[in-house]
Amino acid sequence: MDFSPKDLRQVIVFKDATDDDLEQVLSHSITRSIEEGEFLFFQGDPATYAYVLTSGQVKLLQTNPSGQQVNLRTIYPWEMFAALGSVRGPSAAYPVTAQALENSTALAMKSLFLKEMMQTRPYLAAGLMQLMTSYIQEIQSRYRELATERVEQRIARALLRLTSQSGQKVDKGIELSFSRQDVAEMSGTTLYTVSRVMAEWERQGLVQLGREQIRIINPHGLVKIAEGLEK
Amino acid sequence: MDFSPKDLRQVIVFKDATDDDLEQVLSHSITRSIEEGEFLFFQGDPATYAYVLTSGQVKLLQTNPSGQQVNLRTIYPWEMFAALGSVRGPSAAYPVTAQALENSTALAMKSLFLKEMMQTRPYLAAGLMQLMTSYIQEIQSRYRELATERVEQRIARALLRLTSQSGQKVDKGIELSFSRQDVAEMSGTTLYTVSRVMAEWERQGLVQLGREQIRIINPHGLVKIAEGLEK
DNA sequence: CTTTGTCTTTGCGCTGGCGCAAATAGATTT
DNA sequence: AAATCTATTTGCGCCAGCGCAAAGACAAAG
Lengths: 231, 231
Hints:
homodimer; 231 residues; alpha+beta; Jelly Rolls; Arc Repressor Mutant, subunit A; 4-stranded antiparallel sheet; DNA-binding
């Protein structure tokens, strides 16, 4: 792998870890590389490993019985995910599927080892709980939004969220690389509606559109729409 | 109070606690009684206390800027809730509002004390994480349902969930005491739609309806609807 | 038994958003 | 440069579900 043990401190959960702890974690881990579109694990698989993404981008999603899918969140480098096995035990099932959005590498850490390690390292449990609480808050908000807000607002919010997570600043705004379908899954709608709504925004000069590309020209305008002040 | 320290062991997080630990927790706690309709705390308040419900029923909800509200979950006796302050610190804000559905009593435990206690009691952190992971899984599923399923299915699921949490068995089925409005908030729709959908179910003999009452006659029929196999 | 308040039902009209299908536009391969 | 593949746009029709408003049903209080 192309990173040193100390790089692991970029992972919030490990920020207070001793050198020795980091070594131990690594010795109980393997690295996995996956290509764009491939799956790291599926919903229902036993949660043998917890992961830290070391490069690339991965999305977590759920599918319902009839195959429709919903994006729950996108993971960026040095984020930890799929840690539930370290709490419930490695025989618990992953509640989500993880799919690579680009060629990616991830560190796969034995759930069981982390679980044991937590018994004696309060900082680890504390960090993991921190992660969980912030995630709970985010998904609660998104649930509320989905239940009470209309599509325009939800799409605007999805774009704003992406902006702060993975937006590339260019001279004429902020650029995102996502398809209409991606945005639809993130905002709980269909690609048709996303296309229509964003086309209208383009007419108003809020964004510029391309194939698998969205350039945000006027973020403040989107904020107003997300807040429901527009219209 | 009308419970002994040992009753606290019914709280999953405290099931492995020593007698001494329980005493300590209680000495850092106060009890609060609230009447039906009153609020235990509001979204945005500093998270000074974590709670254990000792009697009654409490719902957690979020409101959006324009006042519309969404039920996130209902708390039953001996469940712990609002524990985020014990992770983030007592100055964090509650992300939800807690309102009593009936006259209730709750044990309010100082977040800061729990936070310190967790440093030296791995069982506590482990229990809390267990709680969080199961909650994350539930809300993720509900998010997916809201995004991909139609109203009928979501109402059926809401009823089934309630059945397992608070259903009273009577000779002719399982009885729930919730208003149409309650069910609407739990399934992300309106009381009108709930009324119409359930009226149709009554015609089909799946349920029997009354004022603030739903008697489920044929749970299996509801399961089929929830799975989307019906229609 | 009447009144008052709350919960529920239902007729009615409306519209936001869905989704097919066909056209168009980029990107990639040969 | 042509062919192929995938992403996107847009016309069109449709309907699930919303929400007002008015009526009905039930419960508790006087």
